[in-house]
Write a structure and sequence with these properties.
Elements (H helix, E strand, L loop, with lengths): L1 H57 L6 H14 L6 H21 L4 H5 L1 H36 L3 H7 L12 H4 L4 H4 L3
């Protein structure tokens, strides 16, 4: 009788462990997708602000019209529904740098700097940028947790059977680590 109980417990353990590992991996994968969805929502919010920001700035910033046009083009590309996650990240990185340059260049336009509409848009954009930054941190934490599960034993065996691969963290490029050369942004 005792042997049958031991065999039953062993079988139960052999069934429960894979189920727990499977559910854990699926949960981590879905958490990554959920947090990336949050980033997507924040980026959409940013993209919705850009046309208003550009329109307001264009009234004053004649010399920077090319940069403003490029920002508008990047925004149009970024809101396409069929973009891969890596493409979204690349566009986001480029757009973030250009928007930062615009904000620095505003110093040369006292009328624009004092424009109430522009100030409101600038505050809104700063708020969205902070939310995007927080979402990126949450995403990177979720990706790290997921990647650990995909790489560590014994869940790496289950992850391999499920064809789960490591995900990339949100990282800034080497170019973004450099100081912003605002003058070069406006020579385009």
């Amino acid at each position: 009788m005792g042997i049958w109980i031991a065999i039953g417990v062993a079988i139960l353990i052999l069934v429960i462990i894979p189920v727990v590992m499977y559910n854990s991996l699926v949960g981590k994968k879905n958490q990554v997708a959920n947090v990336f969805g949050t980033i997507d929502a924040m980026l959409k919010k940013r993209y919705d602000l850009i046309p208003n920001l550009v329109a307001t700035a264009q009234q004053y910033m004649e010399h920077e019209r090319g940069t403003l046009t490029e920002i508008t083009a990047l925004r149009a590309k970024a809101i396409k529904p069929d973009l891969a996650d890596d493409e979204k990240v690349a566009i986001d990185n480029r757009l973030r740098g250009m928007l930062g340059g615009i904000m620095v260049a505003v110093e040369n336009y006292p009328q624009l700097k004092a424009n109430e509409n522009f100030l409101h848009l600038q505050r809104s954009l700063n708020e969205v940028e902070e939310q995007i930054s927080a979402a990126r941190r949450a995403y990177n934490a979720s990706v790290t947790d997921y990647n650990n599960a995909v790489e560590m034993f014994p869940t790496n065996i289950m992850a391999s059977m499920m064809a789960y691969k490591e995900k990339r963290l949100f990282e800034i490029t080497d170019k973004e680590r450099e100081n912003v050369d605002v003058a070069s942004l406006f020579k385009k």
